[in-house]
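Fold this complex.
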Amino acid sequence: MNRDANPLLDVAGATKRYAVTVLDHCNLQVRAGEIHALLGANGAGKSTLCKIIAGLLAPNAGHMTLAGQPYAPANKQAAEAAGVQIVQQELNLIPTLSVAENLLLNRLPARAGVIRRKELHVRARRALDRFGLSDVHTEALVGSLGVGRQQMLEVAAALDRPCKLLILDEPTAALSAAETKTLFQLLEQLRRQGAGVIYISHRLSEVAALAGRITVLRDGKYVCTQKASELSTEQMVDLMSGESSQQAARKIGNNIAAAASSEQVALRVEGLSRGIVQDVSFTLYRGECVGVAGLVGAGRTELLRAIYGADIAEAGRVYLGKAPRPHRFRHPGQAVAAGVAMVTEDRKQNGLLLSQSIKINTTLSAMWKRFSIGGLIRHRAEEQAVRSMCESLEIRSTSIFQTVGALSGGNQQKVAVGKWLVRDADVFLFDEPTRGIDVAARRRIYRLLESLARAGKAMLVVSSDLEELLEICDRIIVLSAGRVAGIFERDDWSAEKIMQAAFSGYVADTPVQATSRKPAQKTARKTTRRRP
Amino acid sequence: MKYASLLFAFVLLGCSGPGEPQTSTVGDASADGAPRIALVMKSLANEFFSTMADGAKKHQAEHADDYRLIVNGIKDERDLSRQVALVEEMVASGVDAIVIAPADSKALAPALRRAMQAGVVVVNIDNRLDVGVLQREKISIPFVGPDNKAGAKKVGDYLASKLTKGDAVAMLEGLRTSFNGAQRREGFEQAMRQAGIEIVANQSAEWEMSKANTIAAAMLSEHPQIKAILAANDSMALGAMAAVKSSGRGGEVQIVGFDNISAIKSAIGEGKVLATADQHGALLAVYGIEAALAMLENPEETPADIETPVELITAGTPTQ
Amino acid sequence: MLVQYAGLLIVLAVLVGVFSYGSENFFQKNTFVSIANQIPDLTLVAVGMTLVLIVGGIDLSVGSVLALSSAVLGVLMVQYGWPLWAAIPLCLLAAAACGLFNGMVSIGFGIPSFIVTLGMLEIARGATKVVTDSQLIYIGSAVEPIGEPLPGVLLSPAFLLAVAAVIVGQFLLTCTVFGRYCVAIGTNAEAVRMSGIRSAPYSISVFVISGVLCGLAGLAHASRLSSADPNAAIGIELSAIAACVIGGTSLMGGRGSVISSFIGVLIIAVLQTGLAQLGVSDAQKQIITGSVIVIAVIVDALRSRWVNEH
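Structure:
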């Protein structure tokens, strides 16, 4: 790497060790007026490096300079004072406080300890307008905003403070296309003002469009720094994974589609309504992977929750397998007993027990069924099952007793999925299964879906990443404003059509005509498999 | 080991904590071989008992060669099980005698029986153990203390002399489980009955000032004709006094108490409280200790109860 | 395994050391026997409290429920002349009913258990006063066998019962699906629900268990005093919570160990006895007890940090 004479931020030899070394003598140089992308697979050390820069972690070795001065922030406050702002992957807003209060939390305008409400809201308003959030009310509670809006709010809060260097860890995962666009404009503006930006994203196309230079980390080690314009996305993946993309399967979706051959019904939903979800009907076949697309707030998560019994449906019926009697699940326990599993979107909130071990998380749903006799735990069988799950899903951890909260996002997601593999189910509901995880882990998850399809399981996958759905799914159900705006087959779908359908509920009176379902045709769609 | 020394230092620090370095195991060095006496009190937060304990410590200091003293109390008058535990702990630590002001007249009896079986001399002060229970436990423990009933009668008689026949009064009892409380109630009742005064309200305020305040206030609004309030101890009398004052009837409603704590003295001087009874608490424990020492000297003798004096205190009583 | 308890055992050993140094009468069989026979009630209550804290609840009503069950026992034996063996089931039933109420109301209506059990604290205490007419009921020797040391062993059946409760409690927690789910519920109830597990039966059971253990504690308490005291065990909830917290149980739920809570009880009991034997004044007792509680928690926090880093 050609070292700059005078970078904004210079990190040299940063090292962080826990039980294992997660960051091993990493270097990073960010110039003023540069958007610098940080790439790497899960556990490559990107987040750790950023946390060190932002004062959230103390490194075991290495030193940093900021604008030529030695820089070793003792904590986040010190880093912020030095002009280094971070927006983390997990939201750090307080849902019960208002937008304005969150925005100005550590510098609330006050006189003698009493908050000056008027000034608070005026200042918040000004900041929100500046960051393209003019539709957000300053008095609204943060908890009432969507995840995407909250994410933007975090960015706004960071930018509202004096900012020499902004660190964004996976900021667009929860953003809509419009929000992403606003964000990029903001970043570009910031760059022109001479600030530095460290940008972490798994969306390589974004990186290619946005970043000036790219630094790649792998397994906690520095790999290289290069101009973004000199790299194709394939090359980026190769650098991150350390292998050539020639070997990697690209169109996993076809394999799943190929497996979706059976006429057997796995799940039939009729006229399901709950909250925003109105009168949704569709059928899911064994071995099939069906995507659910739609804009934020279209009711995708709500649909899964209503099927699963996490929310009680107001109307409609759910049929499972060949059973002639419909179900109306009033509790997820009934759904699980009937063979439905759900992998939730928000791992922190309701997916995992973050402070508990991999073992406890993995076997949670299966304790009665597989790992106990008369209520007593079969410890050995349990540990065996967890170990083999960890092995087959390539979960990177120190042991099966490690707390899940200490794992990287991708490994956490593997545990969340692995839990249901251990429990076993016929129908899997996935809500954003690849959100916030890197390319390699993503591929691992796809392979997993593939094997589930081969085993005759039915899958319903919600994703905000349309490319992903187009790649892996047999069919895509598009929701718009809570209603089915179309069900598309592989034969006749395109991103444009799907986007049109997704918007239809908000502009047109009638949804785009749904195409009829013809699963039998899927048998013909076989592609050669490139990887065992 | 770092933690250990830290902790050790802290404990030592705590022992010589705030206030005067008060070592309650008085006279360790001077009296080897002398009998060890444990004084087990009720709540030492209650002035009556802390005065009693101080009196005992002073006495020990004056007779340092004759015996050693360990003083313990409980947090709260109602914490019976802690007092039982204290008795057991004192027995375990090998004291020769226990002088106890029992928090309950029945529940302490079995623990004291076990103490006696272990060869410890037991003397009962302040609150008399229930005779029936002592019989059932097949033990006899000498009681050293005042006749609460007679004391309450004296206070009641004095109050009656200020009232006229047919007047209405209210009574604030102590903890209903306490023997003293029952004795004082009986003394009050007897005095009122003889004078033809009617007790129109009667509740327990569990010896506490704030509870007495609430209850007295309720009584005053429920029975506006009340001419006087008889409280079974001074803390409750003070609570009643505040209630009378806040009902705007200061001076119209007479109040009497019991115990003669220091806070009541000025109230009596100002005429806000009519009378109280002094059972000379400071000397009570000393009497008990002397009785225990006598029993240790003559183990053969059957100990007898000792009645200590109770004095009526009014505005006219000269202050010492 | 032992490392898990090392911090607490060090604190306990230091306390015993300090008291043995400070009072020649402390390090004796008699002292330890008297400690052992004093702690059954607190131990039983603390076992229940540990489980309740682990599922993310809290039970403030333990003292009142303890008093109520001992009152039921006393009234049945004294006023109705029932024998001990017949009165025990009813006394436990009363306590279990209180626990069931706590569990049903807090889980069923989604009310924080802090509030519900605070209500039960008053209700059960009031009920105790109704049952006993606010009078202490002297039961006499009929209940004493439970609290009296067994000849030879020197330990009372009540103590053995408490130790058994500790062992069973720890077993329940670590070796049964029930215990596993309690930990999970306390960690993240919503995640447990989304895993297809109904948490209500587990949470409610935990409150019932706490109730029953309070009943047993009431039995131990009554036998130690040979009486049913309507004012029994006021404030024991704080001692029990202190014991649990000393033992590293999280007040937020999801983490805790019954054995550690038991060591917490031992620390409190040793402290109490030792200070009484030294004849330390009441004010200093409180300062020292408070300090030791905080120090014990600090030592345990340092220990777990040490374990995490190595």
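Chain C has one domain: 30-304.
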